[in-house]
Every structure is written in structure tokens, then in C-alpha cells.
Amino acid sequence: MSQGARVTDEIEFYKRRGQLQNTVRVIRARTPERLRWRAALASVTEIAGALRGRDRMRIEEPVRELVLDLDDKILRRESVLDARKSGVDLDRGEVLPPHTRWDLKRTAFLTGVDPMDLARYLRLPEEYGRPIDTAAVVLVSRALGLAHKQRADRLLARLPSAHGMTLARHEQYMLDRAERDKDMARRWIALSKVMVEGSR
Predict the structure, then answer these.
(1) What is the per-residue pLDDT for 93?
(2) Contact at 8 Å (CB) between 110 and 70?
(3) Could you tell me if 82 and 45 are in contact, meaning their C-beta atoms sit under 8 angstroms apart?
(4) How many CA within 13 A on the CB side of residue 91?
(5) How confident is the model at residue 151 (pLDDT cuts 50, 70, 90)?
(6) Which of 63, 64, 60, 35 is nearest to 49 (CA)?
């Protein structure tokens, strides 16, 4: 690779060539930051997620050590969450705060969402004293928040933009639905934020 190449380009270069160990070396050699480095790290964990056995361990373990040594708490937390999207668990209790199903139920009640909506996408323990998968709850909550926001934006884009106009009945329904979706988006994002409070 040429000197000064972007870290994301370097990762893609070695990924295409099948030189997976070099992707880890590139990540280690660059200064961690929240934009390109984080995107490059997510690409490396995506590679690890597709591997099995010793090949996976050669990628996953060095990356895990690197993430745990990060000084930036937000970057550490988001790197762990990015990895989980690819099915890679870099956090074994060291980064994200532990929560029980009871904690989730209480927080969901306070933020005004139904925790059973999460159960359609992830497994929740039967007993309320058992720990939940915090990373999965955060990722699903963020995804639900984004889905509600996008639906609200689509509905609002179909409404007339002139202020003070009287809306037709179906347009008023659309506006009301968009407002409900915007509110639900805020609530799901609030739940995801509470779930990661206290990350180390």
C-alpha cells in the first residue's frame, strides 16, 4: 500500500487479497479515532465474523485486546457494538454494563416502550433476575428507533409544506402517525442510551 493511504482503503486492499493478518496489523498501527479507524475496525470484525475456529481466533483475539486497551470510552463501547452486528463478541463483561431482565422492564416502562417488542428480535431470559444481552438490546433498540424515525420522515415528506394550510382528513392522519413515530423513535433511542450508561 502507498504511504498515507486511508485506513479503510488499506483494510479493503488486504481483505481483497485474503491477507487477513495484515488487516489486524493495519488497525494496530493506526491511531484510534471515531470515524475512519472505527469503520476499518468494523470491517475487520466483519471478516472475523465470517471465519471459524483458529482462523477466527487469530483475528478476533488481537482486536479484542486492542479494543479493551482504548482510552476513549465511547470509541471502546461503539467498537464493541459494531462488532456485535457481525456476530463477534469483543465484550465479555468488561465494557458494557450488566443488566437483568428486570432492569430492562423497569427502564422500558420509564421510557414508554414495550420490552416485548424486543423479544421478536432477540432472546430474553424467562427469569427476571437473569442477565440480558445488553449489546443486542442496544442494537435492536437503535434499529427500532431508526425505523420509526424513517417512517415519520417518509410520511412528513408526503404532506404539503405550506404552513397554515388546512389538511385533508387523510393528511391529518398521516401527520398524527408521523408525530407518533417521531415520539416512539425518541423513546427507543432513550432506552438504548440508558442501557449503555456506565459503560467502562
Answers:
(1) 86
(2) no
(3) yes
(4) 24
(5) very high
(6) 60
